[in-house]
Amino acid sequence: MVNEFWRIPLLIQNHFFRFLSTQPRPAMRFHTLSALSLIFILSLVVSADSPQRVPLPVADADAKTQAEMKPYTELLEHTEVEMDMLPIAGGQFLMGSPESEEDRGDDESPQHKVTVAPFWMSKCEITWDAYDAWGEEMDQRRRELLSLPKTPRDIAVDGVSKPTEPYTDMSFGMGREGYPAICMTQHAARTFCKWLSAKTGRYYRLPTEPEWEYACRAGTTTAYSFGDDPDQLDEYAWYAGNTDFNYQPVGQKKPNPWGLHDMHGNAAEWVLDQYTPYETIKSTDNPLQIPTKLYPRVVRGGGWEHDADQLRSAARMPSSPEWKDQDPQVPRSIWYHTDALSVGFRVVRPLTEPSEEEKKQKWENTLPVQLDPVE
Fold it and tell me: Where is the Sulfatase-modifying factor enzyme-like domain positioned along the sequence (predicted)?
């Protein structure tokens, strides 16, 4: 129904002109001016609040029930970038770690049962290839070079913010093609998701902290998705114990039981939540700790520069203002964490897309509002 709202002004216009044709000529001028003004206003309101969504056709991307969900490959139109998406069945799990777990953090208690709804999750972390399609507008540059007309999705992405120019290469020379995008703020990761939603016609966002841990554990209750022995990490993760002081291309290590790569290590991953003590969390059904301040927010999974204990399934990492220490800009950028060289993200797509009101009140709700300074 949402996708049909754009037709309303046109329907009003058609009915009006039918009515007008039956009226005496003296009344026509007044009615014409009044009604066309109304139509114009309605067009602005409707198109702004409920833009037409025309999803890019992708095999196996559509499902109405959990049983119908299949893996699919999302395409970034006008580029060669693809993103593999895996179905994650909904369910209930015990979030946090038991007191018996070695090297656990105090912020992983108390353990608590959480229910999550089904969703798709990107098989790997978002790469620079995908991130630059947004940040550098590589998709639109290529479309223009090929003299291709704009699709409804191209028109939609015009309304999504882009990051400002970084003061340096944010990969810091560690590699770009096929490597995870890093050094972005949560705001930047959230905005990428808005762009991806407009770009594909399907709703994407960051995972919640419970969704992330649920997918990472993949039905396990051990410290890692492969067991309790950190000596096995070399098979599954890039971390301080096996990297040469830099990250690695995504998807090289063994996946977890649900097929997700690099849930442990390589790039730690943003989630939607404010970093909050578990004892203060009351909701257990698809919970989200809506951010009300910039710091701290939650990053999960650990990265290439972290020790084994920080890669555990239950390990939590709070963001910090120190992640901007090298940023020379005044005020400091809303887009970049210059000192978060091991922080990236992956995306999810819920089976049931929330309403626009639900997005506003919950899934896309975050404070303070982030705006670039006015020059």
Answer: 84-324
Taking the model in full, what pTM does it have?
Answer: 0.87
Domain of 11, in residue numbers: 2-49
**Does 153 lie in the same domain as 29?**
no
User: Sheet of 316-318: strands edge to edge?
Assistant: 316-318, 297-300, 268-274, 343-344
Rounded-to-integer distance, Cα 73 and Cα 4, Å: 27
Exposed, middle or buried, 121 (CB in 10 Å: 0-12/13-18/19+)?
A: buried
The tens digit of pLDDT for each residue in 267-315 reads 999 999 999 999 999 999 999 999 999 999 999 999 999 999 999 999 9
* Alpha carbon of residue 109 to chain centroid: 27
- Alpha-carbon distances of 224 from 62, 206, 230, 298, rounded to whole Å: 32, 22, 8, 19
Type and span of the H or E element at 119: strand 119-122
Domains: count for the chain: 2
On whether both 176 and 265 belong to a single domain, the answer is yes
Q: How far apart are CA 152 and CA 57, in angstroms?
A: 13
Per residue, the 3-state secondary structure of 23-83, as one string, reads CCHHHHHHHHHHHHHHHHHHHHHHHHHCCCCCCCCCCCCCCCCHHHCCCEEEECCCCCCEE
